[in-house]
Design goal:
- With about 725 residues, the chain is an alpha/beta fold.
- It is built from 20 helices and 32 strands.
- Strands 10-11-9-12-15-8-16 form a seven-stranded parallel sheet, sandwiched between helices. It has a six-stranded parallel sheet with strand order 17-27-26-18-25-24, with helices on both faces.
- The chain starts with 5 loop residues before the first strand and ends in a 5-residue tail after the last strand.
Amino acid sequence: MSNALYAHVAFNVRTQRLFDYLISNSTTDITGLRVLAPFGKKNAVGIVIKTSNNSDIASNKLKTLEHIYTDMPALPAATLALIRFCADYYYSPIGIVTAAALPAFFRRANTYSPPAGYRINNSVVANDSPLKGKAAAIYQQLQQHAATAASLHKIIPNPHSALKKLLADGRIERCHLWQTEAPAIVANEAAAPTHQLSEQQQQALDKLQLSNTFTPHLLFGSTGSGKSEIYLHAAERVLAQQKQVLILTPEIHLTPQLEKYLRARFPQQRLAVLHSNLADGERANRWLMARQGVADIVLGTRLAVFTPMPKLGLIVVDEEHDESYKQEEGLLFSARNLAIWRAKHENIPYLAGSATPSLESIHNAQRDNWQLLHMPARISRQRPQIKIIRESENLYHGMDSQFVRELSTALHAGEQSLIFINRRGYAPTLLCRSCHNTHHCPHCSNSMTVHRRHDTLSCHLCGHRCVIPAQCTSCGGEVLATGSGTQRIEEALTRQFPNINTLRLDRDNIGSGKDSFRNSSHDIETAKIQLLIGTQLIAKGHNFPKLAFIGILNADAALAASDLRAEERLFALLSQVIGRGTRNIDGCRVLIQTRTPNHPFYREIAEDDVNACWQRLLAERQHSAMPPFAHLAVLRGKDKNEKRLHTFMQKTMHAARQQTDNSKVRVFDAIAPSVDKIGDWHRQHILIHSKQRQALHQFLGQFIPTLPSNNNWTIDIDPTTV
């Protein structure tokens, strides 16, 4: 029997296997550490998933690890278990999952150095001479905790001269920190006062079970009901137990508001915020805070679900319905589902909140699998008055005459107004008057959108742009921009109301420039900007305290979509848009223009009755045997050669049908999605359905290994779009 010790390493490559290496000169367990090892013709960084005394390859044919990094603490067993579960459940290469779980810095062959900081020097005799000014302020801060010069600068302008003096006197010394701010340095260290809870908030809080056991909770609370306060109270209780809290939020732009609340409420706790906009070194630094147990609270987007936290005591998932938790490119996974599994595996409570929870979560709560915390009433906020109007035939750039009249009334009364249309650009289609041809993207099966700013046509799928043609490219006839987007609505209303200060907020201008939201937030909050026109980017995370009128256009387009989750998705979106009007203490009116005012969906929206909508949709799903009453996977194929793709998908479909038991797993026909070509890639998919999750995964576990190992197909488990 060999005495050799082997490392089984995962690399960031598309394969399910681990790679074996000999370990030399290591007397400690290196499981979970990152290593540098020969891989092909060069060295590569990987993670040791496990070590053992056995290998399927003879030791004389194995290479030895080049280097074992000690700058990054080993991934703990709980994190490795989460990585394995993600790889197995989503049929993803374990090396790709492992790489996604790490900050980008630790995926490369470099060594991490903690940031330099300052701390009190306790190794020398104290200098009794009194300190004044900046030196006294710095010394007082460092008596509480070590800090970097950058973090000190936030409350003590230009501290460098004072730091040099304190160093020269021997009162402080340089050190390396695992964190840049420990805890958050703020001008006033006193915690913000705890809000007085309403009766329904207190009832929800009393139902929370925050003991050392897996207890899933669904906080089903209307917009403005105070869900964030429940998160903070739950975190406070867990922090008091000397444990860590992980809070997930669906999108980067929602983190600043939550971060502000957390820092105000818990100024003495260490907070690590993790998202993709951070520099690699800063993200690595904050990740290490969490891994070392230094960070008390971790706030992050979906990849933060993998963050190792040795004292984790609670996972909170805010806006749990949001589809941003599902990664749709590269590694396909749901951070919400992984958070549930992690809480169960680590035996800790799980708290998910939303005004419009996913149907899966509502179904779990109704089956008594989860603790339901229902908060239907808003706190000190009036419910917006919602009115539905039928769209007429004669429209002013997509707006009914009644719509324009009510908007005019609001603006002339000095009321801040918002027009929501989830379509950016000037017009969605360039149409020929003669042959009715529409201008399609040459790389996608998608109409190109008219943009007036540079007189271009733009494909919103692949980014292709071209100049608007003077005439139809098919027959030479006259072309016309049809339909309305945010730019057209802005142009029409600016012409209609020339003295109104207007701002358009969509992906084309929200990031930078003089019209950006970031540069205009004060003018919005004070109603200096009277008319806002925007897409779904303004639906959540923004505070409009003066908003008095909301007009919603073109909702029918999403309602008519063939996608399984179209109504569920639209109700959540419109609820968030309407929720912008709950901030105004004087109330807000909402006007929705639709061609189908008698659809039950609009009655439920008008009555703010998400429960009625959800029960109707659950009944429809149960009747059609769709999630949450069944389980789905979609095999998505793509190829630049349409014929070759068709051949592959037909062959795959027939092979799958031969392998499955139709009584438990059903394989649907290979079909093209509504947009069957993106960026020159033709697309088809095969829907795989089963009423039993175990049966579905048993079939996939046998079938997927028979597929070719190339990048022309992916398997999407629990898809959000079908």
